[in-house]
Design brief:
By secondary structure, the chain is mainly α. Helix content is about 50%, strand content about 10%.
Length: about 325
């Protein structure tokens, strides 16, 4: 059962959801496919089942013929039509599986399967022989032939969710499990496949903990990975930095690190980290994006729905609020 503060958080997302099902970052803002799904999962955790279902239906209606979505939308039309990002496209599988874990509604899975399978088919056409997956297709220049650790880690979990959906529906799973295996091998053993054509993204905390969060790195290797850069990224008593070289703690990254700690069995540490965030919630249930420790200031002046979604996911992972608690815990 949600406490009052988390009820307000779910209510905040519901209030900002548009009549067509889209969930903008905040009022009069853009909608991107990944953050839209993150917020939809928050709705479902909060008991807003029909609202979450409408969010997935919104994606289904806007899906392009090749199975993808563009980078951002506004007022039901493309806002950033420059590219389709593979981790954005794949994330619907994670959201749809999460919805099913809560509702056990097989008809929902059957209805959304064509959307999910088309999205994953698009993503898998961009997997290389080495296992990594190209990060985007530029609408003018074509495939952007490089890979992101964070993006591929997110896709790794989405492939697992796709296999889970297929299994429930009695469909073959081998295509998805094989692709996930290859991608996991690249994430664990082929660092040279990532950040080949741009500056390394290793300064981002998500590159550090996402392989653990999504199950690509497990066991002792995961424990060592989290320990290795803890002091770089974690501000004691505040939260997790977005990047190692700036004193900016972000609430969403702190929530995701909380979940990564749970995946790694460090639940006490996860509870302490999550508890530090309470001061960043407003009375309406919303949560600030981040806090600059150097200036002792909230920044930017934004309280996104996807941050609220991340808070609800972390709380569910920690406290077992719904039947979807194991979304990231049950990775074997």
């Amino acid at each position: 059962m949600l406490d009052k503060s988390l009820e307000r958080t779910a209510g905040y997302i519901a209030r900002l959801q548009l009549p067509d099902g889209a969930i903008p970052w905040f009022e009069d803002s853009i909608i991107d496919p990944w953050d839209h799904v993150e917020a939809a999962m928050g709705l479902a955790i909060g008991g807003y089942i029909e609202e979450a279902e409408r969010a997935y239906d919104w994606l289904a209606k806007l899906q392009r013929p090749d199975g993808s979505w563009l980078a951002a939308y506004k007022a039901g039309a493309p806002f950033d039509a420059t590219r389709a990002e593979t981790n954005f496209v794949a994330y619907i599988a994670t959201g749809v599986w999460h919805q099913y874990l809560i509702t056990q509604d097989k008809q929902f899975l059957e209805r959304l399967w064509p959307t999910v399978s088309a999205a994953i088919e698009f993503v898998l056409t961009l997997q290389t022989e080495h296992g990594d997956i190209h990060w985007a297709v530029d609408t003018e220049k074509g495939i952007d032939r490089d890979a992101l650790v964070t993006g591929c880690s997110s896709i790794y979990r989405s492939l697992g969710c796709t296999a889970d959906i297929a299994q429930v529906l009695g469909l073959p799973t081998s295509q998805f499990t094989a692709a996930q295996f290859k991608l996991g091998d690249a994430l664990r053993n082929k660092p040279e496949r990532f950040d080949r054509t741009w500056e390394s993204k290793a300064r981002y905390s998500m590159d550090w903990f996402y392989p653990v969060l999504t199950g690509a790195v497990r066991g002792a290797s995961a424990t060592q990975r989290l320990r290795s850069r803890w002091d770089e990224f974690v501000e004691p008593g505040v939260g997790c930095r977005c990047v190692s070289d700036e004193p900016w703690v972000t609430i969403a990254e702190t929530c995701e690190l909380t979940m990564a700690l749970c995946v790694n069995g460090q639940r006490l540490k996860a509870r302490r980290l999550f508890a530090d965030l309470a001061r960043f919630q407003e009375e309406d249930g919303s949560w600030w994006t981040g806090y600059v420790t150097r200036d002792e200031a909230l920044w930017p002046d934004e309280r996104p729905t996807w941050t609220a979604g991340a808070v609800l996911l972390a709380a569910d992972t920690l406290f077992g609020l719904t039947a979807a608690q194991g979304l990231f815990l049950d990775l074997e």
